[in-house]
Write a structure and sequence with these properties.
The protein is globular. By secondary structure, it is mainly α. The chain has four helices and no strands.
């Protein structure tokens, strides 16, 4: 899944991420264009997963 596809489906994906990782806040899951990697870094810090693992997980949703 590309960053553009994720951006297009983000509201649905955000809900699923919050269900999976309840300690993430809306601030953690907010991103603007060009900030996707920064947002993944925030999620990575809280979950201990690599960015690639997170991308793969998000692509499954």
């Amino acid at each position: 899944m590309t960053n553009e596809e994720i951006k297009g489906n983000w509201n649905q994906i955000k809900g699923k991420v919050k269900q999976s990782y309840g300690d993430l806040t809306d601030d953690d899951l907010t991103f603007t264009e060009g900030k996707f990697d920064e947002m993944l870094g925030r999620i990575q810090e809280k979950t201990g997963k690599t960015k690639e693992e997170l991308r793969e997980e998000i692509a499954k949703w």
